[in-house]
Description:
mainly alpha; Multidrug-efflux Transporter Regulator, Chain: A, Domain 2; elongated
Amino acid sequence: MGEVRYMISEASKKVGVEDHVLRYWEKELELPIARNEMKNRYYRETDIVLLQTIKNLKDQGFQLKAIKMVLPNISKIETLDSQTILKLKDKLNGRVMDMVKDEKVPDTESEMESGTSLITKEEPHEIAEKTHDKVEQFMSIMNQIILSALKENNAELKEEIGTNVTENVVKEMKFLMRLREEKEEERFR
């Protein structure tokens, strides 16, 4: 019996991502995914393992371009401890950001042909700062929302716990009083 082959839908379920994500990763990472006679992708067990490793790295915060840099040695990454992986992620994502900053993106076709662009090297830095400020502002707002929700939830929980405790104490007191009354009645008999 030959090797097991998975179609893209089966592979995406095994990896835990959507079909289009696998196609995107194949294109961006230039993965050598085999195709059958009908030009449909099929995935071998080794491809599934590779894609699961890529997904794990993505889940840990690696950018796709950073993953592409380590792709030749990706099997070695699985043996690294979490602290080393964290340092590697920061280093590679930093490199990717530097590469993005250094690239000039032409705005129009004529600029692409002539090689000129309205974007200067200073503008990406300013854009990055604005983006960073917006991210910080967003995080601040989210923290306030979460804090507010937690306070409301805590107030409701306190009230509910207080009610439950009070009800339980009252039930216990009634039970003890009934036991006491029964004992007193037995004593008089």
